[in-house]
Design a protein that fits this description.
Chain lengths: 340, 340
DNA sequence: TTGTATGCGTTATCAT
DNA sequence: ATGATAACGCATACAA
């Protein structure tokens, strides 16, 4: 391995001068810099980044903790994070936590051992105490999900508003028997969507009915969606619309409906959430809420590095990015006037 | 920050002893080790990993270069890589190359700057010369794709055999007018699948017809698959089966067929490749080739670390893992006897 | 403008 | 079994 010292000898200068040249210090004469650069070229010298980082006490690495990378929703955010980090010359260590708290903890400990300068969390457990500790001692930003009372910046859409918009749209279409499939987890998005659904129903003077609210599992799995859908479609009278908290769940509802010979949206309106890839692969194209995943990832990086570079000053604690209601084929007015 | 020195003072020993304790050296008396551990506990000492790495000249990090993370096929492999690395206490830097050669190069340079100990490549350009250089100087393994004449271990399925199996299965079903949608890239998998298709046709005494072989774009995009499918379905006589080199392309064919009022598999047999998530979301469930993505990822890590730890001795240059033919709903015998 | 010397937090060599 | 000390490769305060 060729070191800075050999470059110095070859160029006939001291290691300090080489180091200055490497770091573009203006204090080095152009001619000298030229000689140094030539020596670097000739010896094919490549700086040892860990050594530099040790000295500077930084790693140029950020962590991105995600419950999985199979979900295209997370994939997109991670892509955004990667893109922005690439531009800013940071590396991103993508950590697949599998939703396990102990995995999250082990990954976050890389902050303490100086293997990473900061972390972006996309969905993380918070009921263990250690999250608050890390948020205090380290640079962390939350993306898409956030813990309400955690002093840690976040980037997400306004889930409450988006849900209200979607359900109001269904009401506008003429639906009043609107069911919902939520998820069996404690994510803030899940809670806000549930609240938005309940509130908008209440405002329309509709009593929320327990039998119209079902839960898929924590990971929004297709199978659990199918089960919830089957229960919902067995109700009498049947709901005329089903609002799902994820696209994959909406697809499972469509599947269950077709199994029963029901036409979507003719006999049943179905809506999803997130607008991931497979919403427009098969008809009916899904009516859903589009999240700016890529941009959310990018903003998270910017927020994190702001904190890293300008002390701990973060622009605002909660950043909400605009969502979009994607009106496509899976939602339509109910066929017949309904009786409640 | 608390350092090894402070721990040493607190425990009344030298830094050497603390270091030995940290590394479980048997040369330290149990009682002393106990004192040290207590000091570590009390001071909440966390070793500085970069400093250790500098000294040991390693990083405990491996690179994983993928053309994107959106494709669930890559996601699964990356998950396998991450899982195995986690078990072996390595971190993985997931690099989204976007299929750009300059991105690949920049990421691979992290090997030279000691930011990573090795790399796993899932699809990478090889026509620039530098790949051979890295393969020589660094520890690299190729996963799912490989460059035939590159002296670098690889893990993949046997694409040629898998394709022959699939097309033979279609022939067994009674098809003889079998079209293929390939992809406009130079991946070894693409080339072997094409060759397998041509060979098995030839062996059945069928002349390959140029109009039955179409190309999707390099990334197997749904849109490009749709275009290829439309061309194919406009042929007369129409092919009775279409073999696609990716599941997403198969879905696009089904979509195009339905657009024309054709039933799959009644009027047209369609098969995919990879067996990713969305093959069983909507009917007809896709007949496809299943790849052991997760295991391929894991094996890549094992292979890489074997090379890292036991010198450069790798068990074998080309590792082929078993694939599986998934016979589901999208393939069936042709409706009518055909005339060639 | 450039060089000398010290330190970043470890591990490892050589004593004892 | 333990301690003193020299690296590891680089950046920087201070001198010149």
């Amino acid at each position: 391995m060729v070191t800075i010292e050999q470059v110095a000898q070859h160029a006939g200068v001291s290691v300090a001068t080489v180091s200055r040249t490497l770091n573009n210090s203006p204090a080095v004469k152009a001619a000298t810099a030229q000689r140094v650069r030539q020596a670097i070229e000739e010896l094919r010298y490549v700086p040892n980044q860990p050594a530099r980082n040790l000295r500077r006490n930084e790693s140029q690495v950020i962590l991105a903790l995600a419950p999985n990378f199979s979900n295209p929703y997370y994939s997109r955010i991670l892509t955004g994070i990667g893109d922005r980090a690439w531009e800013l010359e940071y590396s991103v260590l993508v950590c697949n936590t599998l939703g396990h708290a102990n995995s999250e903890l082990r990954f976050l400990k890389m902050l303490e051992s100086h293997q990473a300068d900061g972390a972006i969390l996309l969905g993380c457990h918070w009921d263990y105490g250690w999250l608050a500790r890390f948020a205090q001692q380290s640079h962390i930003v939350q993306c898409c999900e956030y813990v309400p009372d955690l002093a840690c910046p976040s980037v997400s859409i306004d889930n409450y508003a988006a849900t209200r918009e979607m359900v109001a749209y269904l009401q506008g279409l003429g639906h009043s028997r609107i069911a919902m499939i939520g998820a069996d987890n404690q994510y803030i998005s899940t809670r806000l969507r549930r609240q938005g659904y309940l509130d908008i129903l209440a405002e329309a003077g509709l009593e929320p009915r327990a039998e119209l609210y079902r839960l898929a599992d924590a990971e929004y799995s297709f199978a659990s969606g199918l089960a919830a859908a089957q229960e919902l479609l067995a109700e009498t009278p049947r709901p005329t619309a089903i609002f799902c908290v994820s696209d994959i769940l909406a697809l499972s509802v469509i599947s269950a409906a077709q199994e029963l010979g029901l036409d979507v949206p003719g006999d049943l309106t179905v809506t999803g959430f997130d607008d991931v890839d497979y919403t427009t692969i098969v008809h009916p194209y899904l009516t859903t809420v589009s999240q700016p995943c890529h941009e959310m990832g990018r903003r998270s990086v910017d927020l994190l590095l702001d904190g890293l570079q300008n002390g701990k000053a973060v622009p605002s604690e909660r950043t909400f990015l605009p969502h979009r209601l994607m009106k496509r084929e899976s939602a339509a007015p109910p066929k017949f006037a309904e009786t409640i």
